[in-house]
Amino acid sequence: MLNRIFALMIKEFLALLKDKRSRTVIIVPPLLQLIVFGYAATYDLNRVPYAIYNEDPGAASRELAARMEGSPTFHLVADLQNDSQIAPMINTRKALMILHMGPHFTRDLLLDQSSKLQVIVDGRNSNTAMLALGYVRNIVSRFSEQWASEHGGVRPPARLNIRTWFNPNLESRWFIVPGIVGLLTLVVTLLVTALSVAREREAGTFDQLLVTPLHPVEILLGKVMPGFIIGSIEASFIILVAVFWFHVPLLGSLTALYTGLFLFLLSAIGVGLMISSIAVTQQQGLLGAFLFLVPSIILSGFATPIANMPPFMQDLTLLNPMRYFLVIIRSVFLEGGSVSLLWPQYWPMAVIGMVNLSIAAWLFRHRLY
Amino acid sequence: MKTMKHPDSTRRSAGMRLHGMIRKETLQILRDPSSIAIAFVLPLVLLLIFGYGVSLDAEHVPIALVVEHPSAQTSSLTSAFYHSAYFDPTGYPHIRQAEEALREKKVDGIVWLRDNFGGETLSAGRSPVGVFVNGVDANNARIIQGYMEGVWAKWLEQFSAAQGMSVEMPVTLEQRIWFNPGLRSRDYLVPGLIAVIMTLIGALLTAMVVAREWERGTMEALMVTPVSVREILLGKIIPYFILGMGGMLLSVAMAVWLFQVPLRGSLWVLLGTSALFLLVALGMGLLISTLAKNQFMAGQLAIITTFLPAFILSGFIFDIGSMPAAIQWITRLIGARYFVAILQTVFLAGHVWPVILANSLALLIMGVIFLALVKRRTQKRLE
């Protein structure tokens, strides 16, 4: 029996890898995407374009402006001279933000200890707008405190003493790059499995397989192994890149990580093969792969938190294997997660995998077309 | 014999041939309803799921509240947290238990009112309140911190006013947020989602149609007919273009009526730019289909080159301006990038012509390049 599975496995590998172009498609794009996405996918702001409209001749406004210029988060693109320049700057997205200091900024500050800094922000991307405002607020309150202490004004109020766990500098790359491991692993596994049965059905070779002495379970194993081997090799490579290229700390145990990866591959291959066995044509297989891939990535917590979804949608994500794997990989990377802590994430993936594989095996013989 | 023909009749027969090609494709679409499903059911389902599922607005964040010495002041601060829509606090008797809960992800943050909380410490620039936030999801952590600062600042102001003190800082920030004053993330995510979904649909509709004909040998059969390459391609594009525009209209209707995204520009500008984008998306699908020898390969290429790049590199969710310069150049190759910029502007800001025209021009250039490449590759295959 092992011999037969092995032979089938060789055949599957040949089908996938013997053609140079098909080999390239499975290996090169995921690795390129890893690097590109690793740099691209970040919420951290960097060189946010802003303009200053300073009507005030005094020193205080100049000092505040200098502080903005000193911040690496912001990048000064223009010095405005009048009101009418504000709207075009924002509308055309030349500047995300305009800082406006009125003609009496310094005078008010010296006389009444109180001045207003007007900030106009482009809210088209609300997340960027919110973060940029947060940065400006920080710069302004530091400026305020210093001004108050130098000019004997009100003492600064009490502050929250905020500390963040697991990611002290709040680098969103630490959050996203481990997510990319899950993302690309899922894509590669689906590429390998989702069209494999449909292609054979369309070509008629699947019927030939069914009349051989091979048991459906053996056919299944022959189809599972290539996805498994290619998926785990690529995932391991991506993990290495995350650690050594992107310098994301890997604190937890590799056992916990690989237990998760093993179960994730099992569930992804299960879904892929099930799609493939339901599909009559490759076009349907492709459609099925997309219909699974796209929601399972968008609703996995990769980019936006699951906790922000409405309750029924959160329940829906319980069917998504990627959701569990992302919790595992982020926990192992950043929080030092262990097998015992992650047990609640492991078993649902095992169930999803087994159920889908059983359906796929059953469909091999019973699919009517 | 050809030269004898009246020019008008050749034009008429060209029209007939194109008409025939369109008819053939339309019949093919109608026989296998999966294309119609892709164009209409897919945007409906995806936009429904994502419109509700994708949000960056945290609400009811579970936090732990630890009060070491309960007093009137601590209870007024804790009730500020209990009343905030952003938080869902649970009281913990001791910081140890709260830290345990943070570690087990039962809560996302801790607000810890230390034993020196009150009176003196509230005005002296000290920090009698410790806050811990789970920083794994850095963006979310930053948002939660912002909300906490907000609750704190508001409470402190009320508290100081009651004590007859002023906490006003020398410089106060007066913020004006244009286009989306409530900072609803859905307002910018839904237009972006339309671009991502239409990228998928464009590719799914066409990625396999040419590859299928090559694989089955019917393309060669078409080649020996008097139908020109241009007519074959037009015959393939026009029916799918109409399907795609239908899907686009459906998406816009859902964005406006279901998700209440304001549409400040006009529908005509939206449809005009959508047509350009659809040309790019369909052209890309056709190119994939032409380059791949078979459907298997075309399917794999479509999965790799459409969804993830449109999702991550289009500026739909991750700000392009903050990416490293080299990556920003790569994003210029992604058609969805231009469409996202147009959609976010037309929906939220209205007719900002410099933005709309520049991005439309980019789409036009991409579309022409894709279609020209498709045409060239198809001709080469003839020999």
Report on the structure:
The complex is a heterodimer of chains A (369) and B (383). By secondary structure, chain A is of the alpha/beta class. Chain A has two domains: 228 residues, no CATH class; 104 residues, abc type-2 transporter like domain (abc type-2 transporter like fold, 3-Layer(aba) Sandwich). Chain A is 66% helix and 9% strand. Chain A has a four-stranded mixed β-sheet. In chain A, helix 3 links the parallel strand 1 and strand 2. The longest helix of chain A is centred in the middle third of the chain and has 29 residues. Chain A is elongated and about 95 Å long. The model of chain A has no long low-confidence stretch (mean pLDDT 89). By secondary structure, chain B is an alpha/beta fold. Chain B has two domains: 233 residues, no CATH class; 103 residues, abc type-2 transporter like domain (abc type-2 transporter like fold, 3-Layer(aba) Sandwich), CATH 3.40.1710.10. Helix content of chain B is 66%, strand content 8%. Chain B has a four-stranded mixed β-sheet, with helices on both faces. In chain B, strand 1, helix 3 and strand 2 form a beta-alpha-beta unit. In chain B, helix 7 packs parallel to helix 10, helix 10 packs across helix 11 and helix 13 packs antiparallel against helix 14. The longest helix of chain B has 30 residues. The N terminus of chain B is likely disordered. Strand 4 of chain A pairs parallel with strand 5 of chain B.
